[in-house]
Amino acid sequence: MDKNNFFTPKLSMGNSSKHIGIVGCSAEGAALCYKTICTESPKTFGEHVHPEISMHTHSLADYVGCLNSNDLTGIGELMLSSAQKLKMQGADILICPDNTIHMAFDYVKDLSPLPWLHIADAVVESAKHQDFRKLGILGTEWLVKSDVYPEKIERMGFSWERPSIEEINEIGRIIMEELVYGIFKPKSVIYFQEAIGRLKEKGCDAVILGCTEIPLIIDDSNSLLPTLNSNRLLAEAAIKAATVHLSCV
Question: What CATH number belongs to 3-118+233-243?
Answer without folding.
Answer: 3.40.50.1860
